[in-house]
Amino acid sequence: MKNRIVLFLLLSIVITSCTPAPKPEAEKAAAAPALMADANLAQVMRAIMFPNSNVIFYVQDKDPGSVKPAADPSAAINILESAYGGWGAVENSALALAEGANLLTIPGRKCSNGKDVPTQNADWAKLVQGLRDAGMTAYKAAQSKNKDNILMATDALTTACSNCHEKYRDKDNQGAIENRCM
Question: Which end is more exposed in the chain, N or C (fewer Cβ atoms within 10 Å of the end residue's Cβ)?
Answer without folding.
Answer: N
